[in-house]
Design goal:
There is one protein chain. The chain is an alpha+beta fold. The protein has a single domain, classed as Aminopeptidase (3-Layer(aba) Sandwich), CATH 3.40.630.30. Helix content is 31%, strand content 34%. It contains six helices and nine strands, in the order βααβββαβαββααββ. It has helices at 11-23, 32-40, 98-112, 124-127, 145-155, 159-162; strands at 2-5, 46-56, 59-73, 76-89, 117-121, 133-134, 140-141, 163-167, 178-182. Strands 1, 2, 3, 4, 5, 6, 7, 8 and 9 form a nine-stranded mixed beta sheet that branches. A hairpin with a 2-residue loop joins β3 (59-73) and β4 (76-89). α1 runs antiparallel to α2. It is globular, with a radius of gyration of 16 Å. The N and C termini lie far apart (33 Å).
Length: 183
Amino acid sequence: MLIRKERESEFDAIHAFIIEAFKTSETPDDTVQDYVRAIRENPSKYEPELALVAEIDGKIIGYIMSMKSYVETPSGRVEGMLAVAPLAVDLELRKQGIGRKLMNEMQRIAAELGYKGAFLAGNPDYYTRLGYTPSYEYDIIYEDEALSKAIYELTGRELRNCIMAYELSDGALDGVSGKIALI
């Protein structure tokens, strides 16, 4: 398996891959592929170094993207944060560590680029195994009424339990508290 940056020439193939992957996800979402396209079209959000595919013999079997983010604190903005979305793996190849390998590679590159932390909305049962912690444990929150309602309807979980954080270096989120914001 090879993990590498996405290429512009394969954006349509990635689009189709995401549609298929999210049809069978625990929380089906038919908008994720459009979200990815919108991020790519916004240079203030898109971080091309952190849009990765996993492939075997030229076939895309996994995908991850992270976009620029920040935390709005009472005293100002803490820059250098990322929002991770989506992470997708081919249905036939799930539970083989592909998602973990994509996440680890994205986090390694992000740390090299100087990012401090990463956030995501996802299943805590899965993401805690990858080292993520509920963001409220850092006193960092994300508020989105529509997302909160959707998460609850799909999973029966409160949004606050599904917003997860990861320090890209030890102590990077120490003393950071506030609201996650997308650039």
